[in-house]
Amino acid sequence: MFADRAKIIIRSGKGGDGHVSFRRELYVPNGGPDGGDGGRGGDVIFEVDKGQNTLGEYRHKRKYKAEDGQEGGKKRCHGSDGKDIVLKVPEGTVIMDAKTNKVIADMSGENSRQIILKGGRGGKGNMNYATATMQVPKYAQPGQPAQELEVLLELKVIADVGLVGFPNVGKSTFLSRVTNAQPKIANYHFTTLQPNLGVVDTENGGFVIADIPGLIEGASQGLGLGHEFLRHIERTRVMIHIVDAASTEGRDSIDDIYKINAELEAYNADMAKRPQVIAANKIDCIYDDGEESPIDRIRKEFEPKGIRVYPISAVTGQGVRELLFYVKDLLDQCPQETVRFEQEFFPEDMLVRENLPFTVTRDEQDPAIFVVEGPKIEKMLGYTNLDSEKGFAFFQKFLKDGGILEELEKAGIQEGDTVRMYGFDFDYYK
Asked: What string of DSSP letters covers 138-162?
């Protein structure tokens, strides 16, 4: 089955934690810290695969995860980096945040490979935190956390020309005549439930054409299968609007054209402004009854507005060649760039603040004293004025946001106990 939409959960690799260890050798009884750094977590990468044309493989598996980085080791050993995960998608796939529907990446044109979620950075081992005042640091930096995101994958067909029109006006028949595509053709609404692509070759050049499923009124509001269909013509540069000029189903062709154009404008105003040509189909079913020809009626209505009308028969091929030549001329006048969807959502903005490396231990002589150590704490104390009310409030917020107060409570601190940090003693009260 053709699958043009899928919702999956992706997760990058967590960075490996830095290691805490000290050099211990026979003749070096008091060796310094030698804990190594953690490895980098793997990235989540999307890559275009020209051989794919659906998102079918993402219908059966929902979660994709890159490898975590390895923890650092003793003797300054660096943890190995986690392996990236590469997800292959067909060209034209748009990756969006599932909650907001904002675009993260458009896998088309030159953008054939993109990192969507970066792996976490590895944490630094305690060998990096030795200073003149702290020669035996008992803490290391945790690895940066992984990123997880639910994304919506949508395949928006890349074609130069889109066929639009109500159901049963002859779009699939037209496509089968002008290309090697073999769409299923039958006489019922929503005959085409998936876009069919074909390549048109003419003496003045070739182009890719897509038969977009038939629309109905209210499609722009999602009625019928409106949104499922309309997204496939967002990239097209020229529209061929096919109508049933013979009114074989009792429809009014002029009214149909206005209704479809209204749906296009309601869904995406830019699409309604793109060059359009009307293919007045089924002329083999029009009989001269002495009244005004339906072709003349359509021409009088739309050609003064700059929209050319070509009478054709998709069944017999009458008028089709002239229409295709005109469409190729329109394409030559249009910009060559493929319609691209700009990035609106940036996953890196979700990164939580980096964990602070610190340790909480009880003083060996007095269990009511809790010793907190860590490079960020030492740095914070260095530039915070604890004598001012604002400065002390800022430092308290830092302790809470960094998870330090939570760790003190886990260690069993009680009201009235002492918290010691690099020469500063604080009484603990909730």
From this structure: ---PPPPPP-EEEEEEEE----SEE
pLDDT in tens, 191-232: 444 567 777 877 777 788 877 665 555 544 544 444 555 666
- Let me know: does 253 contact 166? Beta carbons within 8 Å: no
- Report how far residue 111's alpha carbon sits from residue 343's, in angstroms, rounded to the nearest whole number: 12
Determine the Cα–Cα distance for residues 59 and 8; give it in Å rounded to an integer. 8
CB 420 within 8 A of CB 365: no
Encoding tokens for residue 364?
């060996």
**Bridge partners (DSSP) listed for residue 199:** 208
Place of tokens 């604002």: 390
Q: Is 271 left (phi over 0), alpha (psi -120 to 50) or beta?
A: alpha
For residue 382, what are the CA distances in angstroms to 145, 241, 303, 369, 375?
Answer: 27, 71, 77, 22, 11
Contact 143, 118 (CB under 8 A): no
Q: Write down the pLDDT at residue 165.
A: 83
Q: Are strands 63-65 and 5-11 parallel, antiparallel or unpaired?
A: parallel
- Reported as a single tens digit per residue, the pLDDT across 156-180 is 777 788 888 887 788 878 888 887 6
Q: Confirm whether pTM is higher than 0.90.
A: no
CA angle 118, 102, 275 (to 5 degrees): 125
Cβ atoms 355, 374 nearer than 8 A: no
Contacts for 378 with CB less than 8 Å, ≥ 6 apart: 134, 422
